[in-house]
């Protein structure tokens, strides 16, 4: 489907010409991390499972800790070659100025985001995150409904309003952990982001009711306080998703560099493969001797 390695920067450069910003290039190590997660078929250290990517689909999705020890990262994965999708969230402060109508009718009641209290403490004169301005990711599932699969990323040391890296549509976009999935629906769903983040990934066709359906989006959360930009570390008042995203780019690059290609986990697949081939050759040789 997607052109790989050498051709990607060229394709992205071309597609960037008509628009001002369409996300950043995926560094090679992150690209091989993405590829290796997809080829791993399933997570071996599930921090929690039983989640759904869609209401109609299976509950084969999990929060994966396979690289928690090595890189201090947590991501959402699915069974087989799946990651998860991107539904669209419009919760948060409602601002007539920043809504271009794609969130649905302006009479829709907008829910507050989960860290509204922490965000107000930043004392920026803003009452809540604005889905049209702040690229945020809905991560973690909390609810009281019986049977609702739960996972709070705080259990593993992820901080509210910390940076989340998103690999979508062959690019890398930086957002903020801004909300939990709640138990307002029937299923414990994963794979959701604010409309501004979804637009950075997929363009203006994204609306409040129309997200990205394929399970090929990688959401990476980073453990620790150094992943939190804080009140001064991001341009929260910019009023523009691209300016906001740029303001956390240095932090994002630094966090993504936690994922190094040399660590054993990334190459687990090829190690298993080599070991298997080695064993077969050994058996064949021993038959000849
Ligand atoms: C956006 O939607 C229009 C009209 O439905 C369609 O023609 C176009 O291909 C879509 N573009 C993308 C990038 O999905
Ligand atoms: C935030 O972005 C706005 C709009 O571009 C700009 O005027 C302002 O100087 C920026 N603030 C900071 C702290 O960078
Ligand atoms: C709404 O957005 C505009 C443009 O970014 C900004 O100037 C204004 O302060 C915002 N209003 C509220 C209530 O956040």
UniProtKB/TrEMBL annotation:
Where would you find this protein in the cell?
A: Secreted
Main localization of the protein? secreted
* Enzyme Commission number, as recorded: 3.2.1.132
The similarity comment for this entry is: Belongs to the glycosyl hydrolase 75 family.
Q: Does the keyword Signal apply?
A: yes
Signal peptide start-end: 1-23
Q: What biological processes does GO assign it?
A: polysaccharide catabolic process
Would you say which domain of life the source belongs to? Eukaryota
Native organism:
Zalerion maritima
The molecular function terms in GO held by this entry are:
chitosanase activity
Function text: Chitosanase catalyzing the endo-type cleavage of chitosan, the deacylated form of chitin. Chitosanase may be crucial in the degradation of the deacetylated portion of chitin in the fungal cell wall.
Record's protein name: Endo-chitosanase
Could you list this entry's UniProt keywords, alphabetically sorted.
Carbohydrate metabolism, Glycosidase, Hydrolase, Polysaccharide degradation, Secreted, Signal
What cellular component GO annotations does this protein have?
Answer: extracellular region
Q: Which reaction does it catalyse?
A: Endohydrolysis of beta-(1->4)-linkages between D-glucosamine residues in a partly acetylated chitosan
